[in-house]
Amino acid sequence: MQSTHLLLEEPIRMASILEPSKPSFFPAMTKIVGTLGPKSRSVEVISACLNAGMSVARFDFSWGDIEYHQETLDNLKAAIKSTKKLCAVMLDTVGPELQVVNKSEKAISLEANAYVVLTPDQEKEASSELLPINFTNLSKAVKPGDTIFIGQYLFTGSETTSVWLEVFELKGDDVVCIIKNSATLAGSLFTLHISQIHIDLPTLTEADKSVISTWAVRNKIDFLSLSYTRHAEDVRQAREFLSKLGDLSQTQIFAKIENIEGLTHFDEILQEADGIILSRGNLGIDLPPEKVFLFQKAAVYKCNMAGKPAVVTRVVDSMTDNLRPTRAEATDVANAILDGSDAILLGAETLRGLYPVETISIVGRICYEAEKVFNQDLYFKKTVKYVGEPMSHLESIASSAVRAAIKVKASVIICFTSSGRAARLIAKYRPTMPVLSVVIPRLKTNQLKWSFTGAFEARQSLIVRGLFPMLADPRHPAESTSATNESVLKVALDHGKASGLIKSHDRVVVCQKVGDASVVKIIELED
Ligand SMILES: Nc1ncnc2c1ncn2[C@@H]1O[C@H](COP(=O)(O)OP(=O)(O)O)[C@@H](O)[C@H]1O
Ligand SMILES: C=C(OP(=O)(O)O)C(=O)O
Ligand SMILES: [K+]
Ligand SMILES: [Mg+2]
């Protein structure tokens, strides 16, 4: 795949930086999650997003109702059908999010050094002197001197609509604040972030539960993005809730780490969750700026070693209004990939940004370039050392498959999988070539009817760096005899060739079971 192999740890010839990268059928191994909203909900735009490389669509229920999101999702389904690109669905909860209630939607201007009162009385009109909020216990949670941030929904950090307040005094349920910077709150929704304060609200609110038991069940969502996860118990409770909702027992839970409380309990949360979202939007204001990178590196490393996907947010905020990212943003995206992230999550950029499609494609291109210089060798050794010995049989097979594929310069690894576990383990070792994960459906029953597994498993790999799923025909029996393996393998190879992933005379590494034995084999194609 890589003819000119550059490694950052070695001296790179400056001129080679200018050499254009070969066009590739898979723009990047890194996955892109796009938040769908006003600027990205028509079949046309969603189709363009899919073609540009979006493989997970996020539906953020902080804004918009069930009907709105259903319409968008129906459009997504139409786009998937017409583009023939797979896309997973992620529901993002509201959680304990504090919001300013601005019923009239009129712009509110705030002057530096003036006072403004935050009140739980939602009947009041929002004004320059008074901001009604959706939380009754604010005056019990904060004390004079605390910092409160108010920003536009999906604030980018670069707009002039965000304001910092300092708590001055508490008056009953009201909180009197000094305005630290002049700003005009414009937009339909403002979220409130209070630095390093525990908000006494459940992580999964009643409103979230109602959306999950209706919209999410109806649409069999692949991922639940659990906003403001603060403890491992939050994930356990969400899992317990999903387990009673039929198909949603298969939904994966991605814990969003958005504040210091979540950061403090990171290790336990990672054990319970299926993946982590590094929510740098909120966390970036909860943490001192000089500490944000350290959290990112530590968290991504832990996710990598656990073999669980790490998703990084808020990367190209300025592309919400501009066609090009800032230099710092472009470099930051690449660094997230070099750190080991699986996916990049776009928020405002795709939801209300002017250039959703261009943003996806630029981010994809940066990821692609970063992957090329990712030091896989170093990463592989680090991971093997971390896992230690004895290794589980499956992990040993998976890591060997990656090593073999690199040694023989295979163009692709084909992994048979039912639960998806084997494919994820291969991805954990960050192969430099794509992994075609051939999901073999299994027949299952709930005592009422029979159905096939596989669809969730296939879509859930769309957030894992390097995995490209393919759902095998359920008529192929799942028992792993050589004969059935051969026929499924042929279909996979044909699929790989049709998508341009595999060419004649390529070498391919295959990871499958024959009888009870897991095998890694290397095949060389003829034509
Ligand atoms: N239907 C199948 N045919 C052949 N090999 C398979 C099949 N399903 C899984 N494998 C192989 O079996 C091993 C376990 O894979 P995994 O997906 O973890 O299996 P399971 O779904 O049984 O937990 C891997 O080496 C994988 O490539
Ligand atoms: C993605 C984030 O949260 P949300 O978009 O849900 O506010 C974030 O804080 O980075
Ligand atoms: K949210
Ligand atoms: Mg957030």
UniProtKB/TrEMBL annotation:
Pfam families: PK, PK_C. InterPro entries: Pyr_Knase, Pyrv/PenolPyrv_kinase-like_dom, Pyrv_kinase-like_dom_sf, Pyrv_Knase-like_insert_dom_sf, Pyrv_Knase_brl, Pyrv_Knase_C, Pyrv_Knase_C_sf, Pyrv_Knase_insert_dom_sf. It comes from Canna indica. Its EC number is 2.7.1.40. Keywords: ATP-binding, Glycolysis, Kinase, Magnesium, Metal-binding, Nucleotide-binding, Potassium, Pyruvate, Transferase. The keyword Phosphoprotein does not apply. One of its GO terms (molecular function) is pyruvate kinase activity. Belongs to the pyruvate kinase family. The keyword Hydrolase does not apply. This is Pyruvate kinase. SUPFAM superfamilies: Phosphoenolpyruvate/pyruvate domain, PK beta-barrel domain-like, PK C-terminal domain-like. GO terms for cellular component: cytosol. It catalyses: pyruvate + ATP = phosphoenolpyruvate + ADP + H(+). Residues 30-360 form the Pyruvate kinase barrel domain. Its main location: cytoplasm. Its cofactor is K(+). Pathway: Carbohydrate degradation; glycolysis; pyruvate from D-glyceraldehyde 3-phosphate: step 5/5. It is found in: Cytoplasm, Cytosol.
